[in-house]
Amino acid sequence: MLARRILASFRNIDRRLGRSYSVAAADFEFPTYPDNPHYEDLPRPSRSKSERKPYPTPMKVLIRKAKEEREARKLQPCRMLEKPPDNGLLVPQLIPVSHRVYRARESLLKGLSELQQFIPIQRCRFCSEVHIGHVGHEIRTCSGPKSGFRNATHVWRKGGVHDVVSFPKCFHLYDRVGNPRVGHDERRIIPQIPAILELCIQSGVDLQKYPSKRRSKPVYSIEGRIIDFDEVAAQADGMEEEETGSNAPQDCFSSSAEELDSSHPDSAKSLKELSNETLDSWFEMVRGVKQIMESYMVWTCGYCSEVQVGPKGHKVRMCKASKHQSRNGLHAWQEATMYDVINHNYVWHVKDLKGLPLDNNLKRYYGKAPAVVELCVHGGASVPEEFKSMMRLDVIPPDRDEVDLVA
Hints:
InterPro entries: APO_dom (IPR023342). By secondary structure, this protein is α+β, with helices and mostly antiparallel strands.
């Protein structure tokens, strides 16, 4: 009561002086240091399931771009699209990047599968929490079914590679420009593959199992509808258009597979070398995905984890998240981020895998890191500069019997 009276008196004084005084939730947030690119604090807690994801691009910017496109369509109803990949052609400088991302993903999964044989991975039975160590932590953050009866404690079991890093799936598009949307009746016909793999295919990787149409000439836009005159002319002349054009190398995938096999010899590697190579593959994959997503559009649902790579989102009525009744099961599509394509699972950092489990009363002293980084660091890899502050390596937590002595 005394503190409230003091705060109220300060507010009255500020009102008389003409100043605004308020205590908001933002005043107690962790400080940010934009001048230091290597500083990164703990990730924010997960949002509520009924809350929509934040827009990467502000809504005002999206509305302005939509108005500009509408005005340009009125001034020129029939126009040839010039910029790839909107015109159906590949972006030449992103073709080698897509192959590097494909190889890095394969190398990452292979490295993680070997590292889990030496470093134990724990996962909660009721939620998505993951822990790297021989014994699971005691921090009460479980949000699974009946977590209230367990005081939010986790029930640990053995985990695997897909618990460390996961890749959401999306529908594969044969023609990303001519037929960009998957209907509800096509949901069982069109295969689903990891979104990062679909992103690599659309940007230049050729896989025999998942073919993709390659054009040699740009398409036209007539009042917003995509028309491919080359395909119409080929059908009229009775000619069959080639599925792969000259702008995508035909034997890139075969050479990439050979390079991937030769880069991992059968000779046994040390745990440190394996950890460094796995961590380098992860960073290379993340950098490549960020670069590809600057040109190739990826969509995600604003309420669930569904993603779709292509100019538009699909029309499959399968959303079961908040407010799906008002959308008749359709997804609320918005621009996706790199975290929607690559699921970063953050884990608590442990200094000693064989030490005591992390205590719930000392959780403010512990740091976090992506599960891939935590796994590779315990394998012998050096700690990346951008995650040193998040892992709180310079903080020494007190002992369990010293918790009450800490202010």
